[in-house]
C-alpha cells in the first residue's frame, strides 16, 4: 500500500502551477470558445484548466500568479513552413520571380556550412519566438559536401531556444547536370539522401505526446528531386512512422514543368508517387484547380499557406477559402527569409486575411478568427500535433502567448481578436512553451538577442565573401 501511494505524493509535490488571471482568452477550440475575462492554470507542462472568472481556490504548489489585465491569451503560434538558413541571405534578389530568384541565390546557398546553419537557425527562431511562435519547423534541403552536421546544428539551436520544433529533413538529387537549379556539389545522391534522412529520423525524432523535437521526410520539390527520391522518400517516411513535407504548386512555371516532364500536373504527380495523405503537408499550393483541392480534401493532405512569400515572389494568391470549405487542413508559414525578410509569423495572420480578400471571395474570404485559427490550430493539424497543441484546452500542452492589448496600438479596438489580427503587431508580454516561459516583455529569456544579431551579421558577411570567391 505504501509503495503504491508514494508516487502520487511525489507527483503532487513536484507539479508546480502557474495561474494566469484577468485576461481575455481565445481558446481556438472546436467551438471557438472565447472568454471576456478568465483564467488559465498551468500544471507542469500541461494546461490544467481554462475558464471564466478567477482560478479555482485551494490550488496546491502555485509558484506564480500573473495578473494579465489588458491581455489576450491565445494558443502559441505554429509555423508550418520555413527555411532557416536563408536568414543570412536576406534582402537579395528582391525583384525576381521564384525560378529567377532560385537561380540567383543557389550559388550562395551552396556554400553554407555548419556554423552558418546554426547561426541562421538562431536568428530565424529568435524572430519567431519573440513574436509568439511556440512551435516552429524548418525545411532544410541544402547539404553541400563537407558542410558538417547541418541537421544537428539546426536542432541544437531550437533546443537551446526552447521552442517546440519539427525538422523537415529535406534533400535534392537533381543538380545542374541533370537539369536542376542547384550546383551539383550541393545535391546528394538518391541513396545518400535516403540514408542520411533515415539516420536523422532515428537519431532525433521523438514520437511522444510532449515531444520537443520531431523529424519529417522532405524532398525539396518536384523540379529539384528525382521521381525515385519522391517515391522512396514516401516509403521511408511511412516505414519510420513520420510525416512528409515538400513544396507543391507554387508557381505557374512549376505547373508547366510537371506537365512537360511527367505528363501531368503537380497534384496528379504527387498522387502517383504516394505523396497525398493525412501524413503529408505541402508548402504554398497557390495554383490549385477544383480537382486538386478535392484530392487534397479527400486525402486530408495539409497545406502551409505563406502569404508574404507568395506576394514577394509574385507567385499568386492561394485559394485558401476554397480549401477550408472543402475540408483541407491549412496552416500558416513564414517561408524562408530570403523571400520574407521580416521572418515573423504573427504578421502572417494579417497578411493571410488581407491577401485572400483580394481574391475571388473578396470580403467574405477570411475573417479575423479564421486567420487566428490558421496560425494556431490549423498549423498544429498540418504538423500532426492537433491533439497536443494549437488550442487552449485542459490536458493539452502549455504552449500559449499573452498579447498586450491595452497600449495605444490596440486599446480603442473593442474586440481583442480583431485587434490582434488586423491591428499593429501586438507586444508579447509572455510566451510559454511546454510550461516554460521563453519570452518576457518582447525579449527572449533563453538566448542573447544582441549576440545573435552580431553572429548572424558576421556569418552573412562570411557567406557573401565565400560566394563571391566562387
From TrEMBL:
CDD domains (alphabetical): ATZ_TRZ_like
Instruction: List, alphabetically, the NCBIfam families matched.
Output: PRK08203.1
Origin organism is Streptomyces marokkonensis
Which residue intervals define the domain Amidohydrolase-related in the entry?
72-410
Hydrolase keyword on record:
yes
The family database entries (SUPFAM superfamilies) matched by this protein are listed as: Composite domain of metallo-dependent hydrolases, Metallo-dependent hydrolases
State what protein this is by name.
8-oxoguanine deaminase
Q: Identify the keywords attached in UniProt to this record, alphabetized.
A: Hydrolase
Superkingdom of source: Bacteria
Q: Name one Pfam family in it.
A: Amidohydro_1
Q: Does the keyword Hydrolase apply?
A: yes
Amino acid at each position: 500500500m505504501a509503495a503504491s501511494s508514494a508516487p502520487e505524493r511525489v507527483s503532487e509535490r513536484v507539479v508546480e502551477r502557474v495561474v494566469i488571471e484577468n485576461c481575455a482568452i481565445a481558446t481556438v477550440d472546436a467551438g471557438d470558445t472565447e472568454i471576456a475575462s478568465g483564467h488559465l492554470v498551468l500544471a507542469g507542462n500541461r494546461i490544467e484548466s481554462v475558464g471564466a472568472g478567477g482560478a479555482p481556490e485551494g490550488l496546491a504548489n502555485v509558484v506564480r500568479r500573473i495578473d494579465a489585465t489588458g491581455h489576450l491569451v491565445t494558443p502559441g503560434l505554429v509555423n508550418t513552413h520555413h527555411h532557416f538558413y536563408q536568414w543570412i541571405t536576406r534582402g537579395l534578389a528582391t525583384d525576381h520571380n521564384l525560378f529567377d530568384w532560385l537561380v540567383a541565390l543557389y550559388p550562395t546557398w551552396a556554400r553554407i556550412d555548419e556554423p552558418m546553419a546554426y547561426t541562421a537557425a538562431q536568428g530565424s527562431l529568435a524572430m519567431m519566438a519573440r513574436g509568439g511562435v511556440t512551435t516552429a519547423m524548418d525545411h532544410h534541403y541544402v547539404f553541400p559536401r563537407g558542410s558538417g552536421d547541418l541537421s544537428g546544428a539546426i536542432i541544437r539551436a531550437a533546443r537551446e531556444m526552447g521552442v517546440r520544433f519539427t525538422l523537415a529533413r529535406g534533400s535534392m538529387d537533381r543538380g545542374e547536370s541533370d537539369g536542376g537549379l542547384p550546383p551539383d556539389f550541393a545535391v546528394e545522391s538518391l541513396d545518400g539522401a535516403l540514408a542520411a534522412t533515415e539516420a536523422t529520423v532515428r537519431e532525433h525524432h521523438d514520437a511522444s505526446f510532449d515531444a520537443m523535437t520531431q523529424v519529417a521526410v522532405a524532398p525539396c520539390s518536384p523540379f529539384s528531386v528525382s521521381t525515385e527520391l519522391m517515391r522512396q522518400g514516401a516509403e521511408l517516411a511511412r516505414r519510420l512512422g513520420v510525416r512528409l513535407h515538400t513544396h507543391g504548386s507554387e508557381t505557374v512555371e512549376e505547373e508547366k514543368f510537371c506537365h512537360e516532364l511527367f505528363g501531368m500536373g503537380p497534384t496528379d504527380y504527387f498522387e502517383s508517387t504516394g505523396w497525398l495523405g493525412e501524413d503529408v503537408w505541402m508548402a504554398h499550393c497557390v495554383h490549385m484547380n477544383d480537382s486538386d483541392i478535392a484530392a487534397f480534401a479527400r486525402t486530408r493532405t495539409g497545406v502551409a499557406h505563406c502569404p508574404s512569400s507568395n506576394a514577394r515572389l509574385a507567385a499568386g494568391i492561394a485559394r485558401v477559402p476554397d480549401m477550408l470549405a472543402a475540408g483541407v487542413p491549412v496552416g500558416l508559414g513564414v517561408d524562408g527569409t530570403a523571400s520574407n525578410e521580416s521572418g515573423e509569423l504573427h504578421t502572417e495572420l494579417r497578411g493571410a486575411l488581407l491577401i485572400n480578400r483580394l481574391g475571388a471571395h473578396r470580403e467574405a474570404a477570411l475573417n479575423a478568427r479564421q486567420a487566428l485559427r490558421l496560425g494556431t490550430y490549423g498549423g498544429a493539424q498540418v504538423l500532426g500535433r492537433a491533439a497536443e497543441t494549437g488550442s487552449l484546452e485542459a490536458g493539452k500542452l502549455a504552449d500559449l502567448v499573452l498579447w498586450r492589448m491595452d497600449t495605444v496600438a490596440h486599446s480603442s479596438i473593442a474586440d481583442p481578436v480583431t485587434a490582434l489580427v488586423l491591428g499593429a503587431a501586438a507586444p508579447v508580454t509572455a510566451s510559454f512553451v511546454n510550461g516554460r516561459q521563453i519570452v518576457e516583455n518582447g525579449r527572449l529569456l533563453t538566448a542573447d538577442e544582441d549576440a545573435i544579431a552580431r553572429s548572424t551579421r558576421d556569418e552573412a558577411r562570411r557567406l557573401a565573401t565565400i560566394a563571391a570567391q566562387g
